[in-house]
Amino acid sequence: MVSRVSSRERPRPLVSESIIDAPSQRLYAIGVLVALQAYKIYDLFRLGTSSFIEGSKTSFLVKWILIDALYLQILPRFRIPWLSFQPTTTILQIVAFAAVNVLLVSITSLRVVTLGSIIFPYWKQKEYAIAEHKINPRSVLHNSSRILGQYTVQILPEGTAKLNPNNQHFCLPENDKSGFVEFAVQFNSTTPKSIVYSYRDFSSDIENEIEISGRSLKKLISTGMRNPKDARLQTIYIKANKHGLYKLKKVVDKSNLGVRVVRSEAVVVDCPSAVFASSKPSDRAHEKCVGDEDSIELDVFGVPPLKVAYKTWDGKRSYSHFIDSVVPKDYRLHPLMLSNNPQDIAFYKGLDVQYAHSSKVQIPITAPLETYGEWLYAIENVTDVFGNTYVFPSVEEFFAKYSTNEDQPDQLSSHTYKVLVHQRPEVKFRECSLENPANLFPGKEVSLSIATSYKFPDDLQVSLNRYDLGLDPQNLTVAPNSQNVFKLEPHSSFIKVKETGIYVLSGVSSKYCSGDVLVPNTCLVVTPPETKLHVGFEEISDQCAGSIGARADLEFEGTPPFKVAYRMIKDNKASRVQYVTTDRTRYQLNFTPKKSGKYRYVILGVEDANYGYKELAGAAYSKEQTVFPLADAAFEENMNGEMSSIVKSCCIGDTMKIPVSLVGSSPWKLEYEILRNNKRESIQVVESKSQRYIIETPALIHGSQYTITLVSVEDANGCKRALNTADTIIKVRRQRPTATFYSSDESYRLESVENSLLSIPLRLAGEKPWYIEYDHVSPDNKTTRNQAVFYDPNSHLNVNKAGTYSLVSVRDSSCPGSIQNSLQTYEVEWLPKPSLSMPSEPSWKSSNAYHYEQEPVCAGDSSAFDIELKGASPYLLEYEKSLVEENGKHHSKQRSEVSTMQSSILLKTETSLFGTYTYEFLRLSDALYDKVEARIVDESGLHRVIIHQKVNKLPVASFLDSNKLYTFCIHSDSNYSKEQQIGVKLNGKGPFILGFEIKNEMTGAVNKITVNEVFGPIYKFIFPKDQLTLGKHTVRLLHVQDANGCQSSIPKEDPFVTVSVAEKASMVPIESHEYFCVGDRLSYALQGVPPFEIDYEFNGNKKHAKSNQHIFTRIAEFPGLVTMKSISDQGSPCRAELDPPIQNQVYDIPTVRVSDGGEVIENIHEGDQAEISFHFTGIPPFSFTYCRRAIGRKGPGKILEMHTITGIYDYEYKVLSSTEGVYTVLSVQDKYCRYPRDSSPLST
Predict the structure, then answer these.
(1) 3.40.190.10, 2.40.30.270, 3.30.70.60, 2.60.40.10: which CATH number matches 652-732?
(2) What does the pLDDT look like over 714-773, one tens digit per residue?
(3) Within the chain, how many helices (H) and strands (E) appear?
(4) Which fold has domain 169-269?
(5) Residue from 200, 186, 204 nearest 347 by CA
(6) 3-state secondary structure at position 632
(7) CATH assignment of 835-952?
(8) Where would I find the Nucleoporin POM152 immunoglobulin-like domain in this sequence (predicted)?
(9) In sequence order, which residues have a C-beta less than 8 Å from that of residue 640 and are 6 or more positions away?
């Protein structure tokens, strides 16, 4: 139902009614619609009377739907009364018109006659008659039963099968009998019925074939998978549990057709592995000491070259290490194995299966052990040349357990290794030395304290030698009195001794390691003297007052401080006991009572620092007196009234000068004493007229303590006064400072890397600081003198120059000393730097470089060269690579690094671009040196190493006129013209070798041709005459090789040329009899490339005709003799004279059935052929024309090719075809007649 807008609401027309009234506007609009539909019917008729494909019908449908929709959308915008529709109505109209268009297109599959009878029942179609004028062929009856059946050949997608489509490599453990791998088999556009694959055992080199079919194959297919992006791809997985090379041999699909097997393979080798070689397989732990070197053997197993990654842990942190290119000695690699991509390695490329055999390589690893604790080694992973990687489990977890001391395993696995590095002990005396002896009391023992930094002192054994007192501690040349080994007690570091003497630490060792003895290593053990007191009483009197008291002169023997107990008794009444303490050996105790009376002074007892209280008895220790100022003297330092002793230091053998201040009337007589170790040695009385007197001691030749005591002074008045002033104590050093080198192994030699800072151990005796002079003699015999200051007796002399070091002199804080062994020297040598060498002689030499010329290679080929290394592995070599192209263009330089544990490196060269490559080695690092100059070292000095290699450009070949069609006449004896020679453009160094492929598109036959000695730059390829077979031929370039031996393969995607080999244009009557039925068409099959020009005679009248089709048809309007004379076409320069001329006449109409008249559909694979049978009725001989049409969605499509077969005397004819399409018969002819009379191919 059509809805309209009411007149009250209707807007005005777009075109004013004053210009064109509303009825006229409606008339114009409907007129346009009628014109469009008329043109649509005409366009539909053209579509139905010409060869078309699905695309033509689709274009027609889309075009007219858009045109109708556009008209129906624009019409309401004019607002024409009665034609202004609502939008919903417009949409319904568009849908209705679209449905009509679809219906019209669908009926175009009917025959032209049927279409014409429905739409144009009176349409008159005319055709040419033999007299070259048009007539109406409708009078010819059409009998569709004369030609029945069609044969459809469908080419199934090319089915392929490929083993291991991703080019993976597999591995199985060597002794694992239960393990297996799965490799994929991918099928493209096919479902297999049976699979045959081969297995080649590496050990026996025997190849066996295995077939999978039936239920086993169905099970694999059911468990397989399809590609979600491409449903044609299906993958199944085959299990393999043996080492070897697997190849896919044969695949048959469900149609019992062979499936093309893509060249591929799968290789299963031994999985790589690595273990630490150990003599203790139970716990794999080794005992070492700090400073030792640990040599570990790493056994690597797999297909070389191998890569190993391992980690070490020193108790604090972990370190990663990598070892590349692990190969057995004298192992030569195949160039294919040099590829960085394991997927490039394939045995079908010429690689021998021996390269799949596993090898065992032992790699030494040397590591200096610098800290004590547990050193751990763990292998992370190992990779073989095929990219198979075995990753060892829990390396980080293994280190973490040891770092936290939690859940440590009792036994280590084979990929781990543990070294227990023990601390070297160090010992020395604590609080005892020659300067600070230990006291041994009679009948007792003394504990000598041992200082050590060792964590477990109870594990230490200390060697202790004893010498008698009186020997020179600095020159103990005699044998010791005793040699003892002490084991330190738990939680105690003391050694108990019961005899006096000189004790020397001679050695120390723990359960695992020997140690070092530090200084002080000598302890002096002495017995202190017993305490004695000598008392002398003297009255204190004044010339005027007489006795005013008494003075007790106390003389001590023993070790200060001394403590004296005394008492003063008056009139037989005892007072309290009093005490006095002094650290001097003489002391004056004054008794000056304040009251007169009879007094008794009593010394009760004495004690010193070593011995306890001792009571004194006897008259010598008391004095009685009835109590009834003066000359004086004191040491200059004590004039301020200080009573403490003056302490001075002195070197052994020196003298001391001590000033004394005198008080009183000049001259004076001064009495003083000299004591050594608290024993009197001399008493001196001297006179002085000066108030300042200098006491000069004799040479102090004993290393001990001397005491200078002022005894008395007498002035000019004759009054002599005993003095009670402070003493002067002189500590005489027992030894002068000494210096010597120290070496625990007596080698006195250090080796290290150049310019490193080394520490030469020293042993110094004396008091800090020490001032050392030493000489350095360089390797070129230049001597320099140096000075250094040290504050530790176990100091180290830091040096950074190689040569010979010797000590010259030593002085400590107060005394000059001596060098114990003036001839002793210490050697410092630098370890040699790493260097490299080449296995061949240099090609030429420059001023400071050796140049090596490598053999030229082709771009893209694999190449490498060997470099031999000297030094301490592992090595890291840094080199620079540059490229200069043939045109002189310089590429930027690139730097790379390569590492190895072995003494040689196989360096892969770059060949991706052509030109001259230069490799210069810049720096070389080893375990000792970092980034030193990479040089060859020989007698003439250091030389740079430069490698040159030329990479030749790959030759290039291409057709001059790509995709050009070249036309040839078959059986032609004339020579090829220049236009028929196929031009090939060459780029490279000639002469060249070219490979061509010629494929016959009709038969599918492929021939390959190699042409040698081709000189460029343009080569004219002459198509071989033996390949001039009927049909189209595709000519492709396969490969090109130049004079350098470089070969390029031409991709299949590159342009090609086509050669069309055609017969001379020929004409064959489709009906091979000379008679024709009246009303029938005289049809001739034309062979060649249209358009054709035909000359013929009809009843003696010459005619000339042109035909753009392979069928030349004229209706036999009148009976008569038709004589065809000659024919020519566009594709052949030759004109064919028909000899004898063709003369024909037809009586009866034959029939033909394709495959018994039914519609047969046969599916074949590409390359296979289908058999099409044609059955005839009539009188032989027969001839017929059949065509191949495209397969459409709703029936046969466009004609792709036609063929005419003549001279058939059998009632059945078979054609083999490998081309997809719908095969139908267009015409048939027997001895007299031909059908159909209409020669149009669409009339069938």
Answers:
(1) 2.60.40.10
(2) 877 677 778 888 888 888 887 888 999 998 888 889 888 888 898 999 999 888 899 999
(3) 6, 95
(4) Immunoglobulin-like (2.60.40)
(5) 200
(6) strand
(7) 2.60.40
(8) 528-627, 857-935
(9) none
